[in-house]
Amino acid sequence: MERNCNFNDISDGKLYNSEDMARLGCNDCKGCSSCCQKVGNTIVLDPYDIMRMSSGTGLAPSELIGSHVELNVVDGIILPNLKMAGTEEKCTFLNAEGRCSIHDIRPGICRLFPLGRIYEDGGFKYFLQKDECKVANRSKVKISKWLGIKELPKYEKYINEWHYFLKDTEAELKNYDETVSKNMSMYILKEFYLKEYTMDNFYPDFYERLAKARAMF
Ligand code: SF4
Ligand code: SF4
From CA 68, how far away is CA 96, in angstroms rounded? Predict the structure, then answer.
């Protein structure tokens, strides 16, 4: 999800790579779960998120949608996001102790926070959203450790490809009427999110589907 704001207003003014250190350490979020509630539809999920959540919870992608995940239009494309439920608008994975019940398989945006990504020139850098986490005196942590994602270079390449595919598709959809746009959006949903990936073969499967979608769009 794109944000239109001044980079210097929301960040510490620096751009980071995954091997850089940033002031992220928040004492394991002890006693705080503010990132997991009342965040609307901002925790948008990518295909890798859904694949991991599906294999970790045992719920098929179609079962996740409706129970823990909902669909919304993001920049013209129908995409899944974590659902906030109940009067307190909490993520459905937040347990009674205020901890994440799917910590090991939590989505990429949950891992990233309070970092963000800024995309330019076909790639991206990380930046620190300086006012988002209220913990004072945060310690320095290496970004790769903070993210805790297996095979991080492969993941970063994938997340970059996914971002630019969505951007290109968003631009392309503006050339079509509502019915065609909706059909293209539904294709993305079915092909990248609902169709299951071969076990331990996410990236090859993803790139095969990406090449097909790019040829089609
Ligand atoms: S605001 Fe900071 S401490 Fe609280 S849940 Fe978010 S990252 Fe953790
Ligand atoms: S998946 Fe976990 S970390 Fe992410 S919002 Fe839900 S409870 Fe919080």
Answer: 16
Task: Take residue 90 and report the two structure tokens written for it.
Answer: 């909490």
Least distant ligand from the CA of 83? 2
Query: How large a percentage of the chain has pLDDT more than 90?
Result: 85
Cα angle, residue 92 at apex, residues 103 and 73 outer, rounded to 5°: 105
**Angstrom distance (rounded) from CA 56 to CA 104:** 9
Alpha carbon of residue 64 to chain centroid: 15
- Does 82 contact ligand 2 (Cβ within 6 A)? yes
Distance 70 CA to ligand 2 centre (A): 14
Whole-number Å distance between alpha carbons of 124 and 138: 24
User: What is the pTM for the complete model shown?
Assistant: 0.95
**Across the chain, what does the average pLDDT equal?**
94
